[in-house]
Amino acid sequence: MSIRIIGTGSALPEHQVTNDDLAQMVDTSDEWIKERTGIGCRRISTGEGVVSLAADACRKALEDGGMEASRVELLLVATCTPEKGIPCAACQVQERLGATEAVAFDLNAACAGFLFALHTACAYVEAGIYRNALVTGSEVLSKIVDWTDRSTCVLFGDGAGAVLVERCEEGGILAFVQHSDGTKGDVLRCDGRPLSNPYVDIPAEAPFVQMDGREVFAFAVRKVPASIEEALGKAGLQVEDVDLFVLHQANRRILEGIAKRLGADMGRFAMNLDRVGNMSSAAIPVLLDELNRAGRLKRGMKLVLAGFGAGLTYGTSVLQW
Ligand code: UT7
Predict the structure, then answer these.
(1) How buried is 284 (Cβ within 10 angstroms: 0-12 exposed, 13-18 middle, 19+ buried)?
(2) Whole-number pLDDT of residue 200
(3) What is the average per-residue pLDDT within 29-33?
(4) Which of 19, 150, 151 maximizes ligand 1 atoms within 8 Å of its Cβ, making it the mutation to test the pocket?
(5) From the CB of residue 25, how many other CB atoms can be counted at a distance below 10 Å?
(6) Distance between CA atoms of 101 and 294, rounded to whole angstroms?
(7) Is 42 near ligand 1, meaning CB less than 6 Å away?
(8) Which residue, by CA, sits nearest to atom 38 of ligand 1?
(9) Neighbours of 13 (CB within 10 A)
């Protein structure tokens, strides 16, 4: 028993920001950003929130999968940029959708969050606890980005993607692996609220994303191919058997490095980062939705989904569409 994706949806903010727009804000250029990352533009929220974007993406996934919100049994939102400390984003999305019977909670594994949420849904379904789930990655990273730091503000975008999954007896997720390495937590971080109460008051550091880009780059190119090979091995498949790689969209050069290590041609790597940048946990489900709606995903195709990010966290799903 496993889960298969029966519907997809995505939602992006209206406002588009080009590299030239950013060059008016910080010392950068369209040429540098395109050459070093492959990113051309991104969507930035001027009012859309993690909850409204996730709810929009979920509605589309439900429509695509032909399911009423009231039938959803599990609703997971992967996010590292929730609007509120409490209640969690998933409960707010549940309320907006009218998914009254769903158990709803958030999960934060940064850019690997969507995959970890998908695997959580898979484990619940395989354990016989739920029969279906809505799994969402939703981020408004623009609120935690330092807009004076050219090394990070050019990378990220806002958006949400969702998939509707249900139990299946054959196909679906064939194997998954996931890993965490908390010893490298400082490589990519964003501080939260400092401890402050009547007994202590610790001065806050800037609550913005801080990143050692080269370290993250090296980690991704080393660990992601290993996790893909590990997951393919569990599924009894080879790199040649994979029809499409749908990977976290952080940097085109990272994808090229991964492809090279796997000995796979770039033509099998789906990409949309040129249009939307790095949307953390939303990256993979938004790309999946674009591929689905473009008719590029045919039943029976073998897909590899792989994500990596802060934590450090990384993982891979091998699935049959
Ligand atoms: O979801 C995971 C999130 N994070 C990532 O995926 C990040 C992974 N890392 C990367 O994508 C790349 O490391 C970056 C795109 C962040 C940086 O590219 P790089 O080729 O590793 O550049 P670098 O950090 O080695 O910097 C090279 C130069 C530096 O100048 P100097 O010291 O050589 O004079 C930077 O100050 O490029 C400079 N630089 C920029 N120049 C123009 C850094 N950012 C920019 C910029 N525009 N936006």
Answers:
(1) buried
(2) 87
(3) 98
(4) 151
(5) 13
(6) 32
(7) no
(8) 151
(9) 22
Q: Which two tokens stand for residue 123?
A: 């484990």
- What mean pLDDT value characterizes the chain? 97
CA distance 297 to 182: 35
The residue whose C-alpha atom lies closest to atom 11 belonging to ligand 1 is 251
Q: Which residues pair with 177 in a beta bridge?
A: 316
Q: What is the mean pLDDT of residues 109-135?
A: 98
Calculated CA dihedral for residues 26, 140, 219, 39, nearest 10 degrees = -50
Output the pLDDT for position 277: 98
Task: Evaluate: CB of 19 within 6 angstroms of ligand 1.
Answer: no
Task: Report d(CA 225, CA 57) in Å as an integer.
Answer: 29
- Whole-model pTM: value is 0.96
Closest CA to 285 of 158, 114, 140: 114
What distance in Å separates the CA atoms of residue 302 and residue 268, rounded to the nearest whole number? 11
Task: Output the pLDDT for position 163.
Answer: 98
pLDDT of residue 195: 83
pLDDT score for 231: 98
- Position of tokens 């913005």? 208
5 neighbors 64 (Cβ within 8 angstroms): no
CA atoms of 58 and 44, how far apart (whole Å)? 20
pLDDT digits (tens, 9 = 90+) for 205-239: 768 999 999 999 999 999 999 999 999 999 999 99
The one-letter amino acid at 153: C
Indicate the DSSP class of residue 192: -
CA distance readout (Å), 130 to 1, 5, 133, 141: 12, 15, 8, 31
pLDDT surpasses 90 at 265: yes
Cβ atoms 313, 178 nearer than 8 A:
yes
Q: What is the pLDDT of residues 138-175, one digit of tens each?
A: 999 999 999 999 999 999 999 999 999 999 999 999 99
138 lines ligand 1 (CB under 6 A): no
Inter-CA distances, 162 with 53, 118, 171, 251, 294, Å: 10, 10, 20, 22, 16
Q: What is d(CA 113, CA 79) in angstroms, rounded to the nearest whole number? A: 7
